[in-house]
Amino acid sequence: MTSANTAPILKSSHLLGIEGISAAEVTLLLDLADTYAALNRRGEKKTALLKGRTLINLFFEASTRTQSSFELAGKRMGADVLNMSVKTSSVSKGETLIDTAATLNAMRPDILVVRHHDSGAAELLSRKLDCSVVNAGDGQHEHPTQALLDALTIRRRRGGFENLTVAICGDILHSRVARSNIRLLSLMGAQVRLVAPRTLLPCDAERFGVDVFTDMKAGLAGADIVMMLRLQLERMTGAFVPSAREYFRFYGLDREKLSYARPGALVMHPGPMNRGVEISSDIADDLDVSLISEQVEMGVAIRMAVLDALARGQA
Amino acid sequence: MLLRGARHDGDLMNGRRIAFRNARLIDPASGLDAKGGLLVENGRIADVGPRLFNDADENDFEIINCRGLILAPGLIDCRVFTGEPGSEHRETLQSASEAAAAGGVTTIVTMPNTDPVIDEPSLVDFIKRRAAATAKVRVAPMAALTRQLAGVVMTEIGLLKEAGAVAFSDGDRTVANARVMRRALAYAATFDTLVVGHAEDPDLSEGTAMTEGEFATRMGLAAAPSLAEAIIVERDIRLVELTGARYHFGQISTHASLEAIAAAKARGLPITCGVSAHHLMLNELDVGSYYTFRKVKPPLRSEADRAAMVEGVASGVIDVIVSSHEPQGADTKRLPFGAAAFGSVGLETLLPAALSLHHDGHAGLSHILKTLTASPARIMGLNAGTLAKGAPADLVLLDEAEPFVLDERKLHSRAHNTAFEGRKFQGRARMTFVGGDCVFDRTR
What we know:
The structure holds two protein chains of two kinds.
Chain A: H1 23-40, E1 54-59, H2 65-76, E2 80-85, H3 97-106, E3 111-116, H4 121-128, E4 132-138, H5 144-158, E5 165-169, H6 176-187, E6 191-195, E7 211-213, H7 216-220, E8 225-228, H8 244-251, H9 255-258, E9 266-268, H10 281-284, H11 292-314
Helix pairs in contact in A: 1-5, 1-11, 2-11, 3-4, 5-6, 5-11
Chain B: E1 17-27, E2 32-41, E3 44-49, E4 62-65, E5 70-73, E6 75-80, H1 93-102, E7 105-110, H2 121-134, E8 138-143, H3 157-163, E9 167-169, H4 178-190, E10 194-197, H5 202-205, E11 210-211, H6 214-219, E12 223-224, H7 227-243, E13 246-249, H8 255-266, E14 271-276, H9 277-281, H10 303-315, E15 320-322, H11 330-333, H12 350-359, H13 365-370, H14 374-380, E16 395-405, E17 424-434, E18 437-441
Parallel strand pairs in B: 1-4, 1-5, 6-7, 7-8, 8-9, 9-10, 10-13, 11-12, 13-14, 14-15
Antiparallel strand pairs in B: 1-2, 2-3, 5-16, 16-17, 17-18
Helix pairs in contact in B: 2-3, 4-7, 7-8
């Protein structure tokens, strides 16, 4: 199936962000991911497309979901997968990121998946390595595979992005998920809204071509998709938000606030969730409303598609 | 006149009709200044106008003949420190309300630096309940901007606003950290709520009690340069520009601050400011021989700064005049100047002090009253300060000409630390009404 078509999908040999990707590339990636989603629901989930290739997962930040998703994607594609986390790498012994890159490069991997707490780290590595680099989240900059899996989830439920209103709610300021999603959803023609207290909104947020709301009910009015963001616990003790209870009162998604959205509106969350802070449990667990599990499922499919696309470029 | 209980608003069971006749009506909100009458029904202003009740049937109404005195909206004092909770021996909401009523003040905006600090929704609720149960005038509580007024962590501004806080302030403390202030302002802007700032650089002013200058040097008193105020004024103006927050400088006292605020207003920034009665009336020399009742925060300034404050009120750059009522007892005031507490009571001298600007020819009566009624109501978002039909019947009947000498023993406040002891004034409240109920009557 997938091996039958090997036409190139991505112009770049890396996936560093949504910035710079065209709508046509996104559409091809989502189409390809749809086939992997179908494959993943079968008993036999494995292809041999990446047989003999080496995938390194280099995670400087702890991540259960994204790392295991990439690992599974690589294994289902037949690649040899090596997981390196910061605790076991020599970075903790003082090695610079560039030195780590040179060391890894010498091992001749084909694809490096990297997550790092500094914005721009993935791009820096891409300039020092001979292999393809996939950004699995760099600082507050981008998390392109999250935005792609969100887009895939939305497209499978809603058929497309035209005339779709997506409200992204929460800690926009610190969120790479928000930045990638704003870019991708706008690119695909959706109407994007940002909903947050001013302390969690970037300066000049309007310049992203989005509508900005500080009142959640107004921001959700008529929305088709409500995308909640995680609020780090350390950010709700007074520096950005006075308390968790106040945050939930004004920006936590509950039935009352959700009732302002369009009837049948769907709820997304990149995880991990803070129940009772940004989302109430009854919404998170409501399968008619919540797409949270589906997002995780689509995460594996989109990453398989990304690995496939990058491998085609190397062939 | 009837002296009625403490609670007024929404008293719809009260079917009383009161007719004020033969008054000089001054309503700065509408620009009205004319002879006429005013009708109160169910605690609200039912009608107002030049020829009202000229031929009223005395059996229909309770009639108050104003005999040509001025009937104006009750005053709103935006800066009142009380001792409740925590220092009830200095002042309670009840005793502050007695002083307010005697001063023609029908709404007091209370400051949050009590013990405990008003930084929790339940404490806002406490103030409102205590006020409802004990106070003769309306009480509009401010809540703290940062927890414990420590200038580190912002308070639950959204929940506190829902609980009834009208504005957010750290009282007489300045938030020293610009990052904390920036975020607090941005967060306050989210809820379109007012932040009331105090401008006194904490490092420059730490341990001082006077304005730096020849007088403080002669007296040997630790002093801070007056620019300690303008530094913070300039900083906060820039932060308002960045965040879009509504900001009110609770009280300014220097010419430099006034110039900065005038420029900020000209740029269209949502900034307002107040001045205390004592900064309009007194200068640093009035501290005399270590007179602690005139140790206030910020300290009394030079004569040039005082004159600038008067000019600021006249020009309208200064929006409101406040009492900065701060009760202190012998325990905190009968001390060497440096060790004594800051503050002066002021609820009963606010109107007389403000009227002196009129008597001295600096500003018209309506303009002066505007700084005490319509302007504070607009800034604080209060449904008060006007003689408009339907507004609560919060009124002051005042004699602008009546001369008197201030006698601290006759003050209604529990504390008597007035900066104006022995001062000759002209003009004061004769009667005060809250929600149509007479809460003070000097003729009785």
